[in-house]
Queue: 2 jobs
Job 1
Amino acid sequence: MAPDPTPVTEPFPISHIAGRYLLFDINAISHARRHHNICGVLIGTLPNLSQQNVFLGIPLELMPEEARVLVERGHAYIVDDVRAHRKGCLEMSRDERLKYLREMDRQGLEFAKGVREKAEERAERALREKGLVGRRGKEESEAPQESADAEGVSTSNSLLDSTPSTSPSVAVPEKKLEPHFITPTTSYPPLSPPSTDAALPLPSVPKSYPLFRYLNSRGYFAMPGLRFGCNYSVYPGDPLRFHSHFLATGLDWDEEFELLDIVGGGRLGTGVKKAYLIGGEDPEATPAEEEEQDGASAKPVRAFSIEWAGF
Amino acid sequence: MADEDEDLSHLRAPEAADIDLDEETQDFRFLDKLAHHDTSSLSLPKRGEKDFESHSTNLQLETLEASRQAMHRVLSIPRTHTQKNHILGMYHPETNMAYVEKVKTQHFLTIGRAKGGKEWLLPEEALFLIERGSMDCRWPVDLEDGEGAEVGAPMSLQGAYAAFIGFEGGVGGKLTLEMYTVYAGLKRSGYVVFRHGSWDDDRAPIQPLAQKEEEKPKTGYLSHFFAELWRRISTPSHIIPSQNLAFGPLIKPGLFRTYADIYRLLQIIPTHDRTSPPQFLLPSSSDNPFRLHFDVWKTAGSQRFRKAKRPSPDFRICVINARETSIPTGAQLNDLMATVPDDPPKGTGQIYQKLKHGRRNVILAVVDNGIPSYIRVADCPFSEEKVALCRKTTRGESLRSPIEKADDEGMLADALGFTFKLKKESKNETTGRSASGG
């Protein structure tokens, strides 16, 4: 497997906003997916592809269970993003702001340069395909308006003009380039990444958490399961590549539940080519050895899968 | 019979219409091809092939790696604004809103409200515009230590979520991340979405019953008089007390002019009365989750939507957080239903259509950690549809009672007569024609 595009230093921050756990850093999102089986739910709109609901983008919403697993194992910590922004952005000093604006201007200029270069490349390629000389085409694509307005010469004329002009490829005056405005994805900078000392306590989780943690430690991926009437739909690997295998519902060890739940879950699961899975944590058992590394509270979990036999 | 059918159903290959792209995590490799060309005319890729389980072959690992990298690239697309298309927004911390001085794109046909020469954006509207890369929002500048004309620092996407969702509680707002998820999802599908009028209140006011169209007596006074006389003679003047039900026949020997009268006598189970004006059963409470949040309109092709003069909405949506809210009680549902307009089914449609439509309906958007499911809840007038009588008129259709049929299609009917139906977002219907603007 190829190495990460950009390595992430652990623990990485998880934004806590209005009671929800969000990830904004693309590297952290990829990292959690690759190394910790945490895929979360992308809830943001993709710029340029903002008229569809099939592919979504940043931010990534983590279930409280996912956030908790990451924090318990020391991979991440939780940051009060609301307070950080209130302090860092609403009360930003003038110097800081100007510095930040200059930096954004520089990035914007760089981006504009990139866009122009790409456009030139495209224009050149298109012209070459048509059998025209790239260099001449370049000049035309860059300054169509100037040539048309100032000299009154149509662009097609300048193309046919056979007199060698004076080095047209350097005709990109730097000052003509207008910087694009950029909306950054994360707030670092201008905010400095928060320190781990100010981390918030562990997220509170539903009673299905032990089952989630157990499945996660076994390399399974989980997504929210309301659509299938369960707590989690569980994947054997990255949901990008695999179909889910289980519809999991976490219960307490001694909890009584309706037998009809088994029938309903089993039938629904079988109908969508999955198995219904129930599981819970034994509160009286001693922690199993392999589980111990995950945290002192990890007790053994038993899980059962239910499938319609279909004789 | 029915059982056999059901067992067979999962053996069939899935039909094309059954495949819902939303249901599964999609392979971002398809988008990757598109992401390199930033043209505005992008079409969506087809569903990808997935594997059943890991077999650790190089092929599988490489495919997965390619998918992950494609996802990484697509998610890394920056939000940039050219000088020409730049919409500059300014954050206003006191109200947790944003304002735009110069309105340039069509987005503002269905977003924002003009006040004092500026276009004001509610938190969800501002956040959505920032997220889709259509607006460059700035943090406010402290005027005390600088000149007035200075530009503020750009608000990052992270900052926008922290502000518009996170600060919202501090200014007494009610927007939660779940509501925003629903708002943004509907906007992406092309619907027009505005806050319901009662947003700031604990619940919306009671909506009165719909006016019944007056039935004009077609016949003359004399025949009307006789008809009335017959009706009085033939309709039972009293309801049989329950202790008498154990004895004696429900239908006493007598003069019956129509079957309807006999059937009326057979109806001994009381039903919910929809002719009396609705009433709240619970006291008003600020933490009642079942209240209307959004009004939703389909984008009609030719008709231009005017945000200042909005027509009656096509759908009313109540956003529910699946992790904090349980299934509504009858009283909660009654109170929610009382706040949506009475919308009786029109004309003489088929009985099942009428039942499905219901008298009042609302859409519950149940959000489970960022994934919304839309459920339509309708107040189902079972007692108003005379099954036995229409058996005569529509023959082939009414061999089975509507209740049986409703059951088959996954509707649940309870004593109050509500139906629940999972609603598929009809996005294909609107996506193409929606106002794209940017």
Job 2
Amino acid sequence: MTVDNDRSIVGAPLPRVEGPAKVTGAAKYSADNELPGMLHAAIVGAPVARGRLVQIDTTALAAVEGVVRVLTREDMPTFGAVHAFQAAALDLPMQSDEIHFEGEPVAIVLGTSLQAVEQARPLVRVRCAAQPPILPGHGEREVIAGEEGERDGGSVGEEGGMTWMVWPYGGPVRIGDAAASLETSHTRVGGTWTHPSRHHNPMETSSTIAHWDGDVLTMWDSVQASFVVPPVLADALGIDPGNVTVVSPHTGGGFGAKGWVWPHQVLTAAAARIVGRPVKLHLTRADQYTSTGFQPALTQHLELGADSSGRLTATRHHVSNITGLTETYVEGATEVKDLYACPALDTGQDVERISVGAPTPMRTTNEGCGLWALESAMNELAHELNIDPLELRLRNYADREPTTERPWSSKRLREAYADGARLFGWYDRPRDGRTDGPWRIGTGMATCTMGQVRFPGNARVRLARDGSVRIETDIQDIGTGLQTVLTQIAADELDVPVGDVSVAWGHSDLPSTGPVYASSATVHTGSAVALACRELRKNLSEYSDTPSVTDAIAETDLAEIVGEGKFGLEGNAPIDVGGGDSGYAIRSFGAVFVEVAVDPELGLLRLRRMVGSYSCGRIMNERTARAQMIGSLTWAWGKATMERSELDPATARWLSKNLTGVHVPANADIPADIIVHFVDEVDPHASAIGARGVGEVGATGVDAAIADAVFDAVGVRIRDLPITPKRLLTAIGET
Amino acid sequence: MEFRVNGEIHSEQVSARTSLLDWLREHPGLTGAKKGCAEGACGGACTVLVDGVRMNSCLVLVAQCHGSNITTIEGLADVDGVLHPVQKAFIGEDAFQCGYCTPAQIMSAVASIRERHTSSAEEVQEWMSGNLCHCSAYPQITAAVLAASKKVTG
């Protein structure tokens, strides 16, 4: 396999192929579909966070025009067991009278109009025998076990009647004697860093339409991975997965919330089967807060030891996150252990079970959380030792993956640091802040990294006699530019104009492929398209040795010629992380530099400019890759300065289930002065096309860079996110 | 009730409990306007123009629209399908990702330009901050509005 990085189609800033559909309103999202005879559904959630359901009283609904039926637990079939890495929650609702979290579905209102079910829903009286909820700080803690050095994808196990997601993250890693090394280190820094819980808040709340024709089920669904829908519905409803069709071309944002199948999807399909009519469920914004997961609140204790030159001698990193009473989710923050060369390492994680629903991955999981602590500590260490923060990183640069000694598939972080520093003017920056009117200006930097998550990918490519090329793959469009990138890959591989290439996607009749989450899709499906093109060329060469595929097919009497592309992982793994069994450590890297302004009187914090410089393998489309990074940098600004979902300390309900009380960045928060840069790189091992993951890596490390810029501006260290005006004023007041 | 949607007269009885957003989506099937929250908090994924003024259509009852002239994203391109300059600029500047908020961003941009709130990047940022884009294409949206503003106002 060779990859030529000089050809112009790949990498070119081609405008998005689905652009015209999106600017005219023609792009159809799940809830935009209407079926004849369709009923609307609204889910009634448990009003308390813990207890037992006593009675559901629907007498008040008789007065609401258009209500057809209210389904309760008695109407539901007994669901079969569903499995991790496909289903987000393994404990399906409406199967018992036990309530495990506020908002857990207890009834479904069905009506002939959306207005009817919305009017009826609050009239359903749910009587519960409530118990005090288990609140944060009072839950049982469970230490995450796991084989040291275990790196592969997860599996499923049963223990004590509880089904566990065995996640490849969070198990203890001990190398050397970290405790002893810390004792004897020249300099030690450390502390406790916290994150609040946060919700994904895609602009499109999840929507599902289920339609049965006999035993055949069709789902119009907002998902980030259509391939997991049939197996989960088949397991839950006892049907053949081959009888489930999923239609999902466009997804209105997900950020992890639509990755695995959630109970509302199963309930919609079950409801449609019970009433014998199509059913549409479009979660409200408030529903989304209790239906599709969240990033769990996280506490990290981290300590670094270093010698006088700044070389790390030891790292100790212990992390705890909240999880549900029946669902185990480990936020793998200790996955940052391979960022720097360090001779002694001690990491571990635990989870605390409280009365909430299942957490789930969210941009950016694992390293996005862990780097808040690690990169903050690195910045504190640089300050203690009076070494430039970037120089400190270079002194601890890992030329091989530290915990395994494996070579990197490709790593050009040194160039990313150098280019980013140059674009930002890092070495010319004023030290210890400066003043601009009422504002104190500060700068900060951090390293970014994310382990590569890989899935198998599948695609079919058809070349017709008229020279048109059609790519077929069942993947979603979630705005990453993937369909455009696939077009470029096929045009490049077959040496045809991009205008002759079309993509069919978003329907399960097409070849099943991987997800559009975890910054994985270009690697799995981009590779599959390239491999399909290569197979197509091989098949065509049996008829003609003319180099041009369009000339070649014209010489034959074929109507079309087809190539099937399968991108597989070593050992036929269904998923691998950080390289799996490839023999290489596979990871994306970057460096981020920020300048902020702080008003010390009012506690205001403003972004002035950012530079992100990345080592992410071959960039397939400069324009869509830039958009991915700007999106992630903006997400990180939201995480660092505004986003937080708080549980009511008495009832364990989410306090603000809306975008009024939960703030996310608006246009005015994000200045135009954001520079995104990619180093010129081709990764020969991560994929078949030279690419690695782009996107989520951009939202890692940024919070630590922002916090260090705040320190530079006003001299206070904030270790609790988000950095709110109140926290800033309190910290400034204490100095 | 009689009102115009994208130039077409609709003369019919409407339910008192139906929002303009739900009516647009379910009756004429104009699904370009999206539901992000139905309470005016998501930043207007449902933005349409009512008599030229941008409105969160989830907060307007269709029963309030008698005599109104409503424009949705579906009515923005000309009859031959030639895109409006704002639509072209959104493609040209890559001002969207998932596309869910895009019809609303475009309607808001059309109104901002008409209201003459697009003289600088900072002004565009303020006047476009009523529309959240959680994929966060904000710098590109600002660039698109500025580019379209130049085309529209000359």
